[in-house]
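User: Hey, my collaborator sent me this sequence without any context and asked if I could get a structure. I don't really work with proteins. Can you help?
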Amino acid sequence: MENGKVGTMPRILVVAPSNAAVDELALKLINLMPKLPEPIRFKMLRLGVQHSMHHQVRNYSYDAQIGQYIAAETRQAKATESLEKDERNKQSAANQIYAEKMKAEAEGNAVLAGKLTRDYKEKFQQIEKIKAEIRKPLDIKARKELERVAAERTLAGADIILATLSSSLSSQMEKYFIQGIGTSKGVGSLRPISVCIMDEASQCVEPEALIPFKLGFCKLVMVGDHEQLPATVTSRKAQQLDYQQSLFGRLFSYFTGLGGEEGGMVNPVLRLHTQYRMHKEIADWPARYFYGGLLHTG
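Assistant: No problem. I've predicted the 3D structure and written it out in structure-token form, which is a compact way to encode the shape of the chain:
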């Protein structure tokens, strides 16, 4: 972040092969946000089909954030708050007139009751006109312009973008980050994606892992385990051609084959040496069989 300015954080893309994996990360970020000081509280955007997301994540979806912006701007454009205040005042006056009418009828004052009835109907018509104005949609041209600005501002304001690998290069992402459409005066210059974090990177096939590369980030962090089950490939022909090979596995083999200090310039691989999830006796055999005894229990 530059000089504490909002919208100058390095932009991070977080991807994974499945919606479940992406939402698991999103939920952790949602829990983290309120604990951060306001100056470094990031804005999060979840791309993808809304009904496929965890219900707690849907408010951060692209469609939900676009909808929230449009609703707020529509209210402002139509002066909805002022209209609603006017409606409440007129409704209060109508209720008072109705109470006076009922009292006049009870006292047998037909003339006054008749006048109050006409006043009440007139006030009721005024209320209905206000309600109709509130419900009235914006014209098509204004609506389209509002949708365009909403899309620009939503992408421009996102500090962390989460998506499955397949949806990371959506039409919105391609327009904004590749074609540069949406970098107008209203939202400022393009803030590129600096880092891509790929979770469960060993469980996706290589072509799938390459999808977000088109977005032009300068740093990639892949998280996974080359000893886990690879991506599911049902075609026997594809299996024979090693289609289940992951980019993570390929890079792991390449860098560890170079030698050099782990986590260094030559070999950037960082291994987990201590696990905390399984009981020591359960973890003992996998630690020896798959990891050569290098994985210990904390």
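In plain terms: DSSP finds ten helices and seven strands in the chain. You can pass these tokens on to your collaborator as they are.
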